[in-house]
Amino acid sequence: MESKDQTDINTLDQPLQKTDQLIREIGFLEAQVEELTNHMKSLEYDLAEMIVENNRLFIRVKNLANRTPAWPKGYRPSRKHNHKQ
């Protein structure tokens, strides 16, 4: 059996163990928050790059869609007259 002194030491160590465990959990969660914050910043940067590229391509597509089509030089399209009369 444990002596009274040994029991007192164990009861004193329990709050310290809980405190150490809470400090470790807080440290772990802080590390996760920092990691996720860095990941979010990276994704925001990628999104900004994609927005700029999307705007550039949007302007290009808009210009291409609004211009009149041009045949290659020397090309003469011909219709095939295959009507039955």
Fold and architecture overview:
The mean pLDDT is 85. The protein starts with a helix and ends in a 19-residue tail after the last helix. It has one helix at residues 4-66. With 85 residues, it is mainly α. Helices cover 74% and strands 0% of the residues. It is rod-shaped, with a radius of gyration of 37 Å. The chain is built from 1 helix and no strands.
Q: Could you give the count of β-strands?
A: 0
Strand content: under 5%
Radius of gyration (CA) equals 37 Å
Largest sheet: none
Mean model confidence by pLDDT: 85
SSE-based structural type: mainly alpha
**Shape assignment:** rod-shaped
Tell me the distance between the termini. Answer: 118 Å
Name the poorly predicted regions. none
Number of helices: 1
SSE topology string:
H
Helical residues, percent: over 70%
Brief digest:
74% of the residues lie in helices and 0% in strands. With 85 residues, the chain is mainly alpha-helical.
Secondary structure layout:
Layout: H1 4-66
Task: Please name the defining characteristics of this protein.
single chain; 85 residues; mainly alpha; rod-shaped
